[in-house]
Amino acid sequence: MEILRIAAFSYNNAGGNPAGVVICNEMPAETEMLAIAKQVGYSETAFLTQVNDGWRVRYFAPEMEVPFCGHATIASGAVLGEKFGESIYKLFINQGEITVSVAKSDTGTFSATLQSPATWSEIAPNDYVEKLLTEFNLAAADIDTNYPVRFAFAGAKHLIIVLKNRKKLADMSYHFERVKTLMQQEDLVTIDMLWAESNHRFHSRNPFPTGGVYEDPATGAAAAALAGYLRDIEWQGENNFEILQGEDMGCPSRLSVQYTKNKGESIKVTGETRHITETNR
Fold it and tell me: Under a CB-based contact definition with an 8 Å cutoff, are residues 79 and 4 in contact?
């Protein structure tokens, strides 16, 4: 079984979020996929097998299966592009059907655009938010009031927290097990903690203890959920924007996001990719 290692949402052919990609003749047993994901050690590994006119995809973190993973979808698109050419590929995930379109750049690397599942968002209860903020040594006064704290979904459930101050984001720290327990209470995949630099750019950090990872350097599913959230709160910024993530952990990543004004509609998230080798991690 060949395990390919691809960094998705790389920035100038560096950084990005590593994902394992495994193309199988038949989908392995869940226990085997979980064991492989632990062995690979990345935040997610995608397993693909060809079905009818598309590909069945399942995503595993080191400690659990996740319903949808953006960066592993981008990485999978790059692998499909390398093996079968530039195209739009249909992907069947646990909760439905999505697509990933793949194009080759002049430098020979691949970029991919995922079309997310439908989106929704809802207000997060105040007492729950207060408990989480405490674990991050934050208070309600640290929240940017232009962005209410909400749960947001685009294939996986996230909590959106936008801070007033870039330094607070840079200083992010938390107690792994306590935050993991709180996140499991609401079936959260990550917490999307952000700072809005402008109407075109956000900076983001994504704790992922539920998957056994302290922090994710690029989170495509959270990017899609954020776009759905911004649409729901009638944000006045641009509907094409970028997210810079991974900077504070030395793994710079860029996610390009595009959404329509139609509530609930799928989100486009685009990223560059690169192969991970022993000399180019």
Answer: yes
Structure tokens at 165: 């101050």
In tens, the pLDDT along 188-242 reads: 999 999 999 999 999 999 999 999 999 999 999 999 999 999 999 999 999 999 9
Beta-carbon count within 10 A of 52 CB: 8
What is the pLDDT at residue 140? 96
pLDDT in tens, 88-110: 999 999 989 999 999 998 778 89
**Cα separation values, 145 from 62, 84, 119, 162, Å:** 35, 47, 22, 8
> What's the confidence (pLDDT) of residue 107?
76
User: Please, what are the domains in the chain?
Assistant: 3-114 (3.10.310.10), 120-267 (3.10.310.10)
Provide the residue type at 33 as one letter: M
Residue 73 has, within 13 A of its CA and on its CB side, a CA count of: 33
User: What's the angle, vertex CA 243, arms to CA 46 and CA 125, rounded to 5?
Assistant: 85
d(CA 281, CA 274): 10
Q: Which of 5, 83, 88 is nearest to 40 (CA)?
A: 5
Average pLDDT over residues 248-271: 96
Separation between Cα atoms, residue 79 and residue 46, nearest integer Å: 11
The closest of 40, 96, 103 to 74, measured between CA atoms, is 103
Q: Are 244 and 205 in contact (CB under 8 A)?
A: no
> What angle separates helix 126-135 from helix 176-185, to the nearest 10 degrees?
160
Contact 66, 94 (CB under 8 A): no
3-class DSSP state of 190: strand
Contact call for residues 6 and 45 (beta carbons, < 8 A): no
54: which strand partners?
A: 51
Euclidean distance between CA atoms 206 and 158, whole angstroms: 9
Give the pLDDT of residue 106.
Answer: 78
